[in-house]
Design goal:
The complex is a heterodimer of chains A (about 110) and B (about 120). Chain A contains no helices and eleven strands. Chain A is mainly β and about 110 residues long. By secondary structure, chain B is mostly beta strands. Helix content of chain B is about 0%, strand content about 55%. Chain B is built from no helices and eleven strands. In chain B, the strands form two sheets. In chain B, strands 2, 4, 5, 6, 9, 10 and 11 form a seven-stranded mixed sheet that branches. Classes of the chains: A mainly beta (about 110), B mainly beta (about 120). At the A-B interface, β4, β5 and β10 of A face β5 and β10 of B.
Amino acid sequence: DIQMTQSPSVLSASVGDRVTLNCKASQNINKYLNWYQQKLGEAPKLLIYNTNNLQTGIPSRFSGSGSGTDYTLTISSLQPEDVATYFCFQHNSWPLTFGSGTKLEIK
Amino acid sequence: EVQILETGGGLVKPGGSLRLSCATSGFNFNDYFMNWVRQAPGKGLEWVAQIRNKNYNYATYYAESLEGRVTISRDDSKSSVYLQVSSLRAEDTAIYYCTRWSVYYGLGHWGQGVMVTVSS
């Protein structure tokens, strides 16, 4: 199975900060990497698909990058409504696997 | 508007079985693969199963940790997908989400989830 390791597990930042969340796969996942945002009590929501494609309706302050085994989600200017847990997800090979999540907080 | 609604959750005794249902609307169900993903309380997300559409002979895929205890199925005439889970254990306690899969972007739209609690 491909293991997905996210870091940090908790990130505290100020409104307006540029924040970067990391996701590392245990083997090459060929950019088949999605990012999901989950707010408390809600279902996850797709933000970025296939490494760097912004899902329709998602603010442009969210962006993704990476290749091979290393991927990042960047929020260019953190907003209060971005408080959530962020999960990466690989769909390159079976079984499909998620990272354990990064909880993003506002300082 | 895409709508996905899961039902069938509840309290089940260890060793019991449960069938979850997922009713969809707002898109051509026949064109999409469907998945179940679960989330134990306070934990991360775990992909459970996928069923492909008629063009792919309704092929199914399962998480190894659950294989043998779960069966995913679909009824295209009802735009619905189902998850049968047997020999339930306490560790199966989770919110179970029904999700639509796009060949372009993977897991896209999610339902609100249904809670399954396994306890005596």
